[in-house]
Automatic annotation (TrEMBL):
This is Metal-dependent protein hydrolase. Belongs to the MYG1 family. GO terms for cellular component: cytoplasm; nucleus. InterPro entries: MYG1_exonuclease (IPR003226).
C-alpha cells in the first residue's frame, strides 16, 4: 500500500471516474519469494485472477486487463503480473503471456508461432491481446454501456465501429504493422498516439526504484490511461456517433421524397454526416450515389448545399456546383442561377448557400441537370 501512495504523490492524477474501475491496493505475496501480485481491486472470496507478464508493458495488455475487468465473469478481478509458467497456469485468465490462444480456457496470447487470428468482419489486422479480449467480450461491454441486449443491432454497430476506430490501431502497432505501404521514411515522429503514451509510463532506466511495487503502480496507471480512452471512445459512439448514423440512415431512406432522382438528401437536423453517408451507401447498395446534402446552418439559419466528395479522403466532389456559379455572391449569383435568395458558391463548387430551404433545393436540383463545367 505504501508504494501505491508514493506513486500517487509522484505521478499525475487520473480522472476521477477511472477510480470506479481501478482501485489501488497491492495484494500480499501469495508464495514466499514470489513477486507480489498486483491487484486492481480488493479481492473478495472467490475473486477471479487475471494474469499478464511483468516487466515492460505495452498498450495491448494494459487495455486488455482493463476491458476484461468490465465483464460479468471477471468483474473486480485481481491482476497478477508474472512470467512464471506455473503461476500463470493457475490463473483464471491470462493475457499477452503463456504462448496460448484458447478462448475456451481464457487464454489470450498472440506471440506464439502460427498465430494469425483476426477480428473478422472484413478486418485483416492480426490481433493483439487487446483485440482478442475485445473480440470475445466487446459486445458484452458495449451492451452494458448502451443498456441494450447484447444481440441488439445498435450493439453490433458500435462494436464494429469501436474496433475500427480504436482497437485495430492498438493491434496493428503491437504487431508491428505499418499504417501505410511505403518504403519511404516518415516525414515526422509521432509519439502522441495512445500506444506511445502508454509505453512512456514504463519506469525509466534512471529511476532509482525498479521494485515490483513501482512497476505495478506504473502498470495500473497504464491501465487507467488506456481504459479511460477506451470508455471515452465507446461513450462517444453511443452518445454521438450512433444517433448521427440513425439520422443519415433515415434521410437516405426518405430521399425519394426530396427529389425523384434520389441523389439529394436533406438533414432534418445537422450532424456529422460524411463518413456515415459513405458507409451507409455501401451497406444499402445505393445507386446512383448521393450528389448533394442539404442542411440548415444552425447559426445563420441559412441553408447549405454541400456537394458530396468522391471519397472521405478527397476534396474532389462527385458533382460540384456549376462552374458559372462559382465565386459569385448575393444578387449576382441569384441572377446567374435564376434562383432567388442565393448568397454564395465556393470557388471550387463544393458548397453553396441560400437564404431558404426552397432556394437550396432549387440549387441542388438545377445543379444535377447542369454540367459542372457549364459556363451559362
Amino acid at each position: 500500500m505504501s508504494a501505491i501512495r508514493g506513486w500517487w504523490s509522484r505521478r499525475q492524477p487520473v480522472v476521477s471516474w477511472c477510480r470506479t474501475y481501478c482501485a489501488s491496493p497491492v495484494a500480499a505475496p501469495r508464495n514466499p519469494g514470489a513477486p507480489p501480485a498486483f491487484s486492481t481491486a480488493s479481492p473478495g472470496p472467490g475473486s477471479k485472477r487475471v494474469g499478464t507478464h511483468n516487466g515492460s508493458f505495452h498498450c495491448d495488455e494494459a487495455l486488455g486487463c482493463f476491458m476484461i475487468r468490465l465483464t460479468g465473469k471477471f468483474s473486480g478481478a485481481e491482476i497478477v503480473r508474472t512470467r512464471d509458467p506455473q503461476q500463470l497456469e493457475k490463473l483464471d485468465a491470462v493475457l499477452d503471456a503463456g504462448g496460448v490462444y484458447d478462448p475456451t480456457q481464457e487464454r489470450y496470447d498472440h506471440h506464439q508461432k502460427g498465430f494469425s487470428e483476426v477480428f473478422g468482419h472484413a478486418f485483416s489486422t492480426k490481433l493483439s491481446s487487446a483485440g482478442l479480449v475485445y473480440k470475445h467480450y466487446g459486445k458484452e461491454i458495449i451492451a452494458k454501456e448502451l443498456q441494450l441486449d447484447v444481440e441488439h443491432e445498435n450493439v453490433q454497430c458500435v462494436y464494429l465501429a469501436v474496433y475500427k476506430n480504436f482497437i485495430e490501431a492498438i493491434d496493428a502497432i503491437d504487431n508491428g504493422i505499418n499504417q501505410y505501404d511505403t518504403d519511404q521514411p516518415p516525414k515526422y515522429v509521432n509519439n502522441t498516439h495512445l500506444s506511445s503514451r502508454v509505453g512512456s509510463l514504463n519506469l525509466e532506466w534512471v529511476d532509482s526504484d525498479h521494485s515490483s511495487e513501482e512497476e505495478n503502480a506504473a502498470f495500473q496507471q497504464a491501465m487507467m490511461l488506456a481504459g479511460g480512452e477506451f470508455l471515452e471512445c465507446v461513450r462517444f459512439h453511443a452518445r454521438s456517433w450512433l444517433p448521427a448514423r440513425s439520422i443519415i440512415n433515415k434521410c437516405l431512406t426518405s430521399r425519394g421524397n426530396v427529389d425523384p432522382s434520389g441523389e439529394i438528401i436533406v438533414l432534418d437536423r445537422f450532424c456529422p454526416w460524411k463518413h456515415h453517408l459513405f458507409e451507409l451507401e455501401k451497406e444499402l447498395k445505393i445507386n446512383p450515389p448521393i450528389k448533394y446534402v442539404i442542411y440548415q446552418d444552425e447559426r445563420s439559419k441559412n441553408w447549405r448545399v454541400h456537394a458530396v466528395a468522391i471519397s472521405p479522403e478527397t476534396f474532389e466532389s462527385r458533382q460540384p456546383l456549376p462552374q458559372c456559379w462559382r465565386g459569385l455572391m448575393d444578387d449576382e449569383l441569384s441572377e446567374r442561377s435564376g434562383i432567388p435568395g442565393c448568397l454564395f458558391v465556393h470557388i471550387s463548387g463544393f458548397i453553396g448557400v441560400n437564404q431558404t430551404y426552397e432556394g437550396a433545393l432549387a440549387m441542388a436540383t438545377t445543379a444535377l441537370t447542369t454540367p459542372a463545367s457549364s459556363s451559362s
